[in-house]
Amino acid sequence: MLSKREKMAMRLSVSNQKGGAGKTTTALNVAGALNELGSEVLLIDFDPQGHATEGLGFEDLYDDPEQDSLFEVLPDLDRMDDLEDLIVEHQEMDCVPSHVRMINAEDELSNVMRREERLDMLLDNVDDEYDFIIVDCPPNLGVLTDNAIVATGHVLIPAQAKSTSIRAIELLFQQLRSMEQAFGDIHEVGLVANEVGVDGEADEMMEWFKDVFDDKENCEVFEIRKRVALQRAWNNGVSIFEHEEDCDMEDVYLDIAYHLEEQIDG
Predict the structure, then answer these.
(1) How many Cα atoms occupy the beta-carbon half-sphere of 31 within 13 Å?
(2) Which residue from 60, 105, 135, 222 puts its CA 20 to 30 A from 46's CA?
């Protein structure tokens, strides 16, 4: 069973390099579910496109030319204590917003020392303030995603229940095993199948997901059906738990949150 260091947050990356996998929806609603259970949560929008930033209602910060961001902090070893200055408060969780300048972050990190460990250094300074730190990764396998995975050591994988997801997941597994050789153990804690339809392909993919992930220790497969309420919650800057509409998918996100808490308690 996974362990949690005393007085330190469990860190989790939400990662899949394939676009349209439901990555940000997963990150926001899992964070909302953990908050619903009483946990203190920090969500880091590590995607230069800033979808989680927009989904929490901070789109003005994304475009603000005066806004300090991870783009300035990550490459500068003298600023490894500055993460707290980037945190903004949301009604459900704290957030480190993305910024339009993050589009150039991979280039800025390309030649710096310990480039894959910069986020890990930053998180060391806020670990004792949260129960969970969730990183919404970019939709690619690059230096930013490597930073997130090294910093967290735990990966939750969102995917669509379509055959096109197979190759992306296989490539992600290859990347995770490669990174383990250099940085230590990395645990897949689950797969979230998003917008699962009622058709043969979806049924076959759910079987494939379960065959692949059930063999992994402490790893579960969760099924999210398409619900308009999830999009409306995102449009209103909140998770489904703060949205005014009832939605049966709340129970699934709570199951994911309970699963994550079990990884700590065990």
Answers:
(1) 33
(2) 222
